[in-house]
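Researcher: Good morning. I'm working through a list of sequences from a screen, and I'd like to move beyond sequence-only analysis. For each chain I'm collecting a predicted structure so we can compare shapes side by side. This is the next one on the list. No need for commentary yet; just the structure.
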Amino acid sequence: MAGTLALVMIAGTISPAYAVPFVGNTIANVGVQSPIFGALIDFDVRATGTVVGAQDFAAQGIASITETTGNFGPLLRLFGTQSQPNYVGTQSFDGTILIECIGLASKVGIGIANSQLGPETVNIYDQNMVLLETSPVVAGLNVYVGFDRLGVPDIKFFEIVGQFFTIDDLQHDCRSDKVGGDLLPINSLSLFIAGIQTSALWLIPLVASAVGIGAFALRKKF
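Model: Good morning. Structure tokens for this chain:
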């Protein structure tokens, strides 16, 4: 029972009960945002007016980026006001944009440009699509928002929902480990449990040896 309680207490310290939503800032037309962390995707590698492919940013840690309602056409690189030349949105500037990390992230941030009919909403989900946190976006021409999970990598999906908005300057600290050709998230609790299991396996032969020595001693004595 004590061992179970200890494990629960350790697990509780690994995963926070809440994230810290943050509001940073960005300088229009310059592309300088704060805070600065992780990998930056500014959507400027390809030409303005081109369609954003779902897997365009796989090399930068993003498994997919899509508009999930299907009601507003594809995501496009449009001439932007946040970090030129491009920001990303639908032709009508409405929709739900879902960003999926290849692994898991503990911190994500996004610039929201031209938020006029808001408030937009940003959401983060775990790998089972369970909602971790949600937050409204403050109104403004160019704002920077996100979530900080205090070092715990459990963010799989980052979602932006709204009307008449675009996104720019995505940042994330997606973490993954390549094992056997597959990308697997590094999970501190899993590593801890694996360590306990490994220790237990080492103890089995030691216990067996001690039992054998004890039985031999008893035979010698009697």
